[in-house]
Specification:
single chain, alpha/beta, Rossmann fold, 2 domains, six-stranded parallel β-sheet, 16% strand, binds nicotinamide-adenine-dinucleotide
Length: 298
Amino acid sequence: MMLLDGKIASQAVKESLKTTVHQLLMDGKPAPHLAAILVGTNGASETYVASKVKNCEEIGFRSSLIRMEESIEEALLLDKIYELNNDAAIDGILVQLPLPKHISEAKVIEAINPAKDVDGFHPISVGKLVQGLETFIPATPYGIMLMLEHFNIETKGKHAVVIGRSNIVGRPMSILLSSNLKHGNCTVTLCHSHTPNLKEICLQGDIIIAALGRPEFVKADMVKEGAVVIDVGITRVEDPTAKKGFRIKGDVAFDEVSTKASAITPVPGGVGLMTIAGLLKNTLQAYGLKAEGLGQKA
Ligand code: NAD
């Protein structure tokens, strides 16, 4: 069994980005600059944003963390996004989700200049992804593609089973794996909460991507011998014996599934780290777009 170690694969991506930043600075150019907006004080969101900012610093990117009160009016958040859209010093913008209920996530996502949409959630980015055009790929599916590439996992002609159809993970993942890409060309089955025969379908999967948010849902009896298993799930499960009072669990029962899988990602230390790598690559891409004069177009 091969452990698909996110530390190793993400470090390789970050080293290459570090070299690029170093070269930019040597050429007297500024480093790419990511702006992250965090609304409220959700614990998990705080952790994710802190990690994004820390990773930017680590590779020499600039970053700005903009904090807003939980009770912020939608209009004020939108104004902040317009301001960042028009700020030539900002290359990429992300708004950490989820947002408080009184704010429309769709409106917020659509307010971001598509040329700075490093999360790849804007309908223009999604449309381009579907058509196989160059665009920002949502960071988690992008990170998974980078991981498949790093560990040279063969995907062509394989049957990939994706569990979960969210806009941020499952659906874009199914599009990428079915696209005519080096690590695509799979036959994809996209499963969701209304899929009646999930176990049967999973047993046919050469590759399983579990992105449903149910701790240890995928058990050994759902997995074919030799399958590649990618665990996207991150759920905080209460555990009074843990220092923080909770443990992070993936969507795959790692101990039992790893005895059947030919390759598997751990949680933590797998896809989460690759998500950051995907975001950093998108930020560099946004920087490149700006250099081509596209960054300021609406
Ligand atoms: P979501 O809640 O938006 O979507 C979950 C999907 O799973 C839905 O499409 C639903 O139909 C499907 N689903 C739910 N129960 C199911 C069941 N019993 N059988 C089949 N399908 C079922 O979640 P999301 O935002 O896509 O996130 C999924 C998981 O991935 C969560 O644990 C989340 O925390 C994690 N996540 C991790 C990363 C990372 O970087 N590793 C990034 C994003 C999300």
